[in-house]
Amino acid sequence: MIISNVAIRNRTTVGVLTVLIDVFGAYSYVSLPRESAPDVPVPFILVTTRYEGVAPQDVESTVTLKIEKELAGLKGVKEVRSSSEEGLSLITIEFLPDVKIDDAMQYVRDKLDRAKPELPRDAEEPSLTEVNIAEFPIIMISVSGDISPVALKLIADDLEETLESVPGVLNCDVLGGLEREIRLEVDQDRLSAYGLTIAEILSLIPAENVNISAGSLETPGTKFNVRVPAEFVEPDEVDKLVIAVRDGQPIYLTDVAGVRDTFKDRVSFARLWSSVADEAGQRRLVGSETITVTVQKRVGENILFIAEAVKHVIAEFQRRVPADVHFDITLDQSKDIRMMVADLENNLASGMILVVVVLLLAMGWRPSLIVAVEIPLSMLLSFIVLQMLGYTLNMIVLFGLVMAVGMVVDNAIVIVENIYRHYTLTGDRMQAAFTATAEVAWPVITSTLTTVAAFAPMLFWPGIMGAFMKYLPITLIITLLASLFVALVVNPTLSSIFVKGRLREENQQSRFMRGYRRFLNVALTHYLTTPTLMLLVLASLAVLYIKRAHGVELLPDIDPRRAIISLRCPQGTNIRETDRLARLVEDRLQPFAADFQRVITNVGAGSGDFFSGGMGGAAEHLASITLEFHDFEHRARPSARAMAEIRHALSDISGAEIKVAKEEEGPPTGAAVTVRVVGEDFRVLEELSDRARQLIADVPGLVNLRSDHEAARPELSFRVNRRRAMMLGVNTAVVGNYLKTAVFGTEVGKYRQFNDEYDITVRLPPHQRENIDDLFRLRLPNNQGASVPLSSLGEFSYTGGFGTISRINQKRVITLTADAEGRLGAEVLADAQARLASLTGELPFGYEIRYAGEKEEQDKAQAFLSRAFVIALFLIVLILVAQFNTLTVPAIIMTTVVLSLVGVFAGLLIHAMPFGIIMTGVGVISLAGIVVNNAIVLLDYTRQLRARGMDLITASVEAGATRLRPVLLTAVTTILGLIPMAAGISYDFHTFSWSTRSESSEWWATMAIAVIYGLSLSTALTLVVVPSLYVLSVRLTEGLKRLWRGGHEASCAGESAGTLTPPPLTGG
Prior knowledge:
Layout: H1 2-9, H2 11-31, E1 43-50, H3 56-71, E2 77-85, E3 88-95, H4 101-115, E4 127-132, E5 139-145, H5 149-163, E6 169-175, E7 180-186, H6 188-194, H7 198-208, E8 211-219, E9 222-229, H8 236-239, E10 242-246, E11 249-252, H9 253-256, E12 257-263, E13 268-277, E14 283-289, E15 291-297, H10 303-320, E16 325-332, H11 333-363, H12 365-372, H13 374-388, H14 395-405, H15 409-426, H16 429-455, H17 463-469, H18 471-498, H19 511-525, H20 529-548, E17 552-553, E18 562-568, H21 575-588, E19 596-604, E20 622-629, H22 639-649, E21 657-662, E22 673-679, H23 682-696, E23 702-707, E24 715-720, H24 722-727, H25 732-743, E25 746-753, E26 756-763, H26 772-776, E27 779-781, E28 787-789, E29 794-799, E30 805-808, E31 811-820, H27 825-841, E32 848-851, H28 854-884, H29 888-910, E33 915-916, H30 919-930, H31 932-947, H32 952-962, H33 964-983, E34 986-988, E35 993-995, H34 999-1057
Parallel strand pairs: 7-26, 17-33
Antiparallel strand pairs: 1-3, 1-4, 2-3, 2-30, 5-15, 5-16, 6-15, 7-12, 8-9, 10-11, 13-14, 13-19, 18-20, 18-21, 19-20, 22-31, 22-32, 23-31, 24-29, 25-26, 27-28, 30-31, 34-35
Helix pairs in contact: 1-16, 1-18, 2-13, 2-18, 3-4, 11-12, 11-14, 11-33, 12-15, 12-18, 13-18, 14-18, 14-33, 15-16, 15-18, 15-33, 16-18, 16-28, 16-30, 16-31, 19-32, 19-34, 20-29, 23-27, 28-29, 28-30, 29-30, 29-31, 29-34, 30-34, 31-32, 31-34, 32-34, 33-34
């Protein structure tokens, strides 16, 4: 092999290259950004259009449909969802992961420009907002303390401002707390007594609260700036304003309004509960009001570095603020990342040690160390490439490295073992390195390429699932190619220097080897019986799996770190009632205090969930309670069991729809059961969705059943009598604005203090806006300067109508979602589909039931992985045909893939695991590239021996005996590298203790077990079945040749005996 020969002759160069790989690889490993999951930007764009006072169905027809029509031809779109509600149109466009967000924004902007001329004139211009999952908060800080709400809010605001200057931080927000405002509460009775209206106050404040620059004034030798500084410095200044003069007497603002330095109406509540032990050792939840500061990072920035900087800022603030103020980090992705990275690093190191120990036992210390050099060098070289590509060190990349630990030594084992064998025969290290490497170089290259070929199709996995999972094949391909380079360059060079002595326990003298030779001889003598027995064993295992299989799942159902209790009250529920129900839930959580580290409650603002199936956002009728469980290894019981008990404890709370669900990790897949009822008439959709909900409500294992359809918010409409209003000199805009001022308040200016500014609002006092009669007394100015009572301009009426009209891809839809508990999601969905079959048959024309969510992702993943498996097999066959220049040998080698599949099914049965579409599916594809390697090495050497003149049986036995050690070692090292992950047992090199439970092992155990059992059975049978099939193929080929030769000779003889000379042709 040219590259190996050049390396062996230039050993100093190889040594320098090795040192450079060590240095730059270590630097790359330290500097690679860490993340729990890949930083996959999934672009969402939100189009928001406000159309105040318009009913949902009118918003849909005049705004939503017009924009959707233009968006129909948008390229790169996965799904368009819309929500039309009172006065608001929200359209969410989800693009495919490979679409750049800047390009997506421009596409949408161009389409909106076309739609704008068709929108109502009085609707606001549509606004675009980029929503990126990768930019969600990485840290949440709760600020609490026994100080005034104003001081606490100031501290939170100051913290927000400081954190936004931290490098890598994109944005910070403050949630909760009381927001200060200067409120002018106007007394209607006093206004009437003085003959005034609110109009005078609304115009007074903006006219008085000003700073005006009047230019400059030049005098001899001096130039002055001229200003009128009239902005309010203190709230008391507002009291002294003169609103009017009557009979020479000034009427002050305080004569008709109370000036209050107060707070805006509460739109949210936030509380932090900590689990503490009392004197008796019993745990209980102790909580307090809090303000939350959220921190978002920029895409591609290192979370760990940002988190450290944020914690440093918090420590500085803690020293500056009063002792009663506390900063608690309630969400810290860096902690989760450190735990996951440490866990996978421990698995990586534990697998490495197991591999090296096996090599020491099997090969002796000198050859095993030469082989073991392959592991760190391949890994360090991979880190260099990963950093050059701009990747992060996340759970998927790390598992790829864990999976590769045992595989990277395969090439080195074959090469070093062969070098030692040649050295034993010749005694010349250099010559042995040249000859032995050249002898196995092409089989080694072929085996690596077949493994790469198995992973290559997964690079083209579409959708968000593919965007997450593609890092696995990329990492494995990089690491395998790096190992091939090290095996062909570094290992032969080291062998040419350090090879000495013999391999431990020569093959020919081993008791195990002698037994294997005898057994293989018998198997090859009965070459028809051996494959037949194999087929019977495979068929038996297949039948057993079909009867005893444990179902199918998309992704592993792991024990969650956090759970979220979502409360949804009826539309129109005020914030106080929602908070009362949230407090009731908190009381019910007290018996479960031992399961939690902390509990975080958000009522109103901060409680919305953008990706819960609705359009997100927050409202007074929503609340969320986040349960943070103890770290995985410290839990007294599974968090899933605690969730089930909590769900039961909350089941009798009325007044709100309550959902207890785990916080989703990894790629978003949707709910286990997602049923979409699609049609045009919303009344019919409501009826059908209600029937569907009743049909599936009691499906075993179905929990958190919820509809995205909400009833209309109770509405009090004032219908203006336009004719009468025109006669009285008042228009509809004046009526609407004055009602808004009376009920909600109108901002008329800003009050600035230090670096902060607060709203100055005008509003009626609470006792004058509590009922319709109070509002009827409101007096409005007309165009002649007189005042007109509201009661003379129209009347109030209670209205209902639609709540929210949802559409998906331009179709009206009501969506039912539910989770699975205690059963696989696929099983629960199958039962739900069976229940809904009767309804499906009764649907009116134009209406249909569709299934989405996890089911949709599962079907997509299954379809892709099936295609990827077939393509991988095709690529492997192409490589094998190119290597062996025949179809027979590749066909024999591909039987190992079938053997590995049976091993996978056996492993799933033994461990009572479901077949994971993602994890097991990827494991099966991985095996296709791994298991063929042993057969390649075995049959390649068999053909070499036959080419040297050995008979068929002797060559097959000799090849099996000679390649037994490398075949077993390559399989065992791959298996041992994955055992820590599969068993969930590893040594924690950070705390120097054994770790017996880990979250990452739950994620990846299914894939690890699939590879371990598939490779184990395949390797065991490969050593016997593959030689038997090879002998059978050769015998069949020789028999066919003899038959053909014999038939051909007989045919020739017959033709020779019976041939007549034809008469000459004559023309005529």
